[in-house]
Design goal:
Blueprint (H helix, E strand, L loop, with lengths): L10 E5 L3 H13 L3 E5 L2 H10 L4 E5 L7 H11 L4 E6 L4 H9 L4 E4 L4 H14 L11 E3 L2 E4 L4 E4 L2 E2 L4 H12 L5 E2 H9 L8 H20 L8 E5 L3 E5 L16
Parallel strand pairs: 1-2, 1-3, 3-4, 4-5
Antiparallel strand pairs: 6-7, 7-8, 8-9, 10-12, 11-12
The structure holds calcium ion.
The site of calcium ion has 5 residues, from loops.
Length: 256
C-alpha cells in the first residue's frame, strides 16, 4: 500500500540540539514531502515560529538554552493552532505529563522509529489539516503590506525598495505587529541563528529601514495610515499601526 503524503507544503519546525537526530529528522521528513526548518535552541525556535507560520513543531525537551517545556507553553499561548509533538529522551512519566500540560498535543520517547513518528503526524494532520490553521498571504499593518512569499513591501500600494536585511527585519516586525520583539530574537531571526556579539548592525539596519519607509511615505501624495517602529529601550522594537496622518516624521520614535 502506498504511504499517504502529507498535505501540500506542510511546515515542520524541528527543535533539536543533537546534530545526528536533527539531520536524520530533517532528511526523513523532507523525503516524505514535508517542508522543514531546523533550530538547535529554544530561543531560535520561538523566533522562527513567530516569523514563519508553522504547522507542526517537533520539540526536544532537553535544549541548551531554555527548557523545552517552557518553549511548549509559550508556543501554545501564542499559536493556538500549532501541532506540538514533544520528542524526549526523558521517559519519566512526570516529564510527559508536564509536556502535555504545557500544551503539547503528543509525545514520543527517544529512541522512536521514524515510521511511528510519520504515522502520528499523518493522524494528527488528518484531524487538523494545516490549511485550516496556517495564516497565508501578505501581512498588512495600516497602509503597509509585507508579502514575504513575493518579497515585496508596499506602502499604500506603491513598492518600497528595501535591502534584503531591511526586508527581513521588517517582515519579522510585521508578523509580530503590535507586540514587542526582542533584540535577541531579531538578531537570531534576521542574521544568524548562531549569532552572538554586538548588535550594532541591528540598529544600523533599523535606522536605514525607517529612513526608506519614511521617504516612501513622504513621496506619497495621500494621507497614510503609517505604522511606527517604536524603540523599546533595553528590549527591542515594536511595529504598530497608527491612524492616518500627514505627519512629516513617519516611522520615527515618539518624543521621549
Ligand atoms: Ca537535547
Amino acid at each position: 500500500m502506498r504511504t499517504p503524503v502529507p498535505p501540500e507544503g506542510t511546515r515542520v519546525l524541528i527543535v533539536e540540539d543533537d546534530d545526528t537526530i536533527g539531520r536524520h529528522l530533517e532528511a526523513a521528513l523532507r523525503g516524505h514531502g514535508y517542508r522543514t526548518t531546523w533550530c538547535r535552541t529554544g530561543v531560535n525556535a520561538l523566533a522562527e515560529a513567530r516569523a514563519t507560520p508553522q504547522d507542526v513543531v517537533l520539540l526536544d525537551l532537553g535544549l541548551p538554552d531554555v527548557d523545552g517545556i517552557d518553549v511548549a507553553r509559550t508556543l501554545r499561548a501564542e499559536l493556538p493552532g500549532l501541532l506540538i509533538v514533544i520528542l524526549t529522551a526523558r521517559s519519566d512519566e512526570i516529564d510527559v505529563i508536564a509536556g502535555l500540560d504545557a500544551g503539547a498535543d503528543d509525545y514520543l520517547v527517544k529512541p522512536f522509529t521514524l515510521t511511528v513518528l510519520l504515522a502520528r503526524l499523518r493522524a494528527h494532520l488528518r484531524r487538523h489539516p494545516p490549511d485550516a490553521t496556517r495564516p497565508e498571504g501578505p501581512v498588512r499593518v495600516g497602509d503597509l503590506t509585507v508579502d514575504t512569499s513575493a518579497r515585496r513591501c508596499l506602502l499604500a500600494g506603491l513598492e518600497v525598495a528595501l535591502r534584503p536585511k531591511e526586508f527581513e527585519l521588517l517582515a519579522v516586525l510585521a508578523r509580530n505587529a503590535g507586540t514587542a520583539v526582542s533584540r535577541e530574537t531579531l538578531m537570531a531571526q534576521v542574521w544568524d541563528e548562531n549569532w552572538f556579539g554586538p548588535t550594532k548592525t541591528l540598529d544600523v539596519t533599523l535606522a536605514s529601514l525607517r529612513r526608506r519607509l519614511g521617504e516612501a511615505a513622504d513621496a506619497s501624495p495621500h494621507s497614510l495610515a503609517l505604522p511606527q517602529i517604536t524603540t523599546l529601550r533595553g528590549h527591542g522594537y515594536r511595529l504598530e499601526s497608527l491612524p492616518p496622518t500627514t505627519s512629516p516624521r513617519p516611522f520615527d520614535d515618539p518624543p521621549q
